[in-house]
Specification:
Layout: H1 3-29, E1 32-33, E2 40-42, E3 72-73, E4 80-99, E5 112-119, E6 122-129, E7 136-154, E8 161-162, E9 164-169
Antiparallel strand pairs: 1-9, 2-4, 3-8, 4-7, 4-9, 5-6, 5-7
Length: 170
């Protein structure tokens, strides 16, 4: 292969990469957020106080301070879970964002699985954190994902709390 052929291949690969990257960025920039306020459920309720209800993680408030009343919180259990029913099947989910508690006790938020599915009996894991998650985490998909439910499963044998979960689709 001569130098001009190598350069042509290199230019072609570079051009294709930029085109794909540009298309991906355009898709991500035009995503729509699933509206807040969808029904949410959790495995238990900390101190039986509605201030820490599952609905707090889909109220549209991304504040990560528990005292603001915008985070769900469970009791200590071997396995805790939280899920939201998006109330319809979305066929082009491209991103999920999580906002973890940052005012205290963030070290509890580890060993978390994010699952999606069209029914609670048909869920598949799309992300797992074995160590502590950051205050704001993004899961992006290069291909459309189909889901009606998004579920968080926490197996750290401690309290579980999260302040917001947002789902984006095309």
């Amino acid at each position: 292969m001569n130098i001009s052929a190598v350069l042509l291949v290199l230019i072609s690969v570079t051009t294709t990469t930029y085109a794909i990257t540009g298309l991906y960025q355009a898709i991500m920039a035009n995503l729509k957020k699933v509206p807040a306020g969808k029904p949410a459920y959790q495995s238990s309720l900390y101190t039986n106080n509605s201030k820490f209800a599952a609905s707090k993680a889909v109220d549209g408030n991304t504040n990560t301070n528990m005292d603001t009343g915008s985070c769900f919180h469970t009791e200590t259990n071997r396995t805790n879970w939280w899920y939201v029913d998006l109330q319809q099947t979305y066929r082009q989910i491209r991103k999920i964002e999580l906002y973890s508690r940052t005012d205290c006790c963030a070290e509890r938020n580890k060993m978390i699985s994010v699952q999606i599915g069209t029914s609670l009996d048909n869920m598949r894991q799309v992300k797992y954190w074995s160590s502590q998650i950051g205050g704001h985490e993004k899961i992006t998909f290069t291909h459309d994902q189909v889901a009606r439910y998004v579920k968080l499963v926490h197996t750290a044998n401690t309290y579980f709390h999260m302040c917001e979960l947002e789902v984006y689709h095309q």
